[in-house]
Amino acid sequence: MLQDYFPILVLLGVVVAFVLVSLVLSELAGHSRRTRGKGTTYECGMDPVGNARGRFSVKFFVVAVLFILFDIESVFLIPWAVNLKLLSGEGYGVFLFVEMLAFIGVLALGLAYIWKKGGLEWD
């Protein structure tokens, strides 16, 4: 049983060793001279303006949560498609297909509701 996991343990050991060696070599070979320019914040070549802890609109968070919600729910389509092919030979194909149509219908209704309410607008 343990020999089945041996390749995974070897890979984990190689990864940990690589990270440790990279960190040690970077610390030994790197220059550690501090300057004023190195200590400043870097934002795409532009000088930072304002406070980094500025407030965001609630709309930003709503759009982010909705994106994650619909993204995660769409991931359920992949295992469903695999299991549909496997289970359709056992007579469950029509039931699973109708069940997923209902799931997609609920997602479509939710998206239509959010779209109509203006939940995806940035203004």
Polypeptide structure, described:
The protein has 123 residues and is mostly helical. It has one domain (2-117): NADH:ubiquinone/plastoquinone oxidoreductase, chain 3 (Methane Monooxygenase Hydroxylase, Chain G, domain 1, Up-down Bundle). Helices cover 70% and strands 0% of the residues. α4 (77-87) runs antiparallel to α5 (93-117). The protein is flat, with a radius of gyration of 25 Å.
Topology:
Blueprint: H1 2-29, H2 36-39, H3 58-75, H4 77-87, H5 93-117
CATH-assigned fold name: Methane Monooxygenase Hydroxylase, Chain G, domain 1
Name the CATH architecture: Up-down Bundle
Text of the CATH class: Mainly Alpha
State the helix count. Answer: 5
Average pLDDT rating: 84
The secondary-structure element order is HHHHH
Distance between the termini: 58 Å
Largest sheet: none
Any idea what the radius of gyration is?
25 Å
Uncertain regions spanning at least 5 consecutive residues: none
Strand segment tally: 0
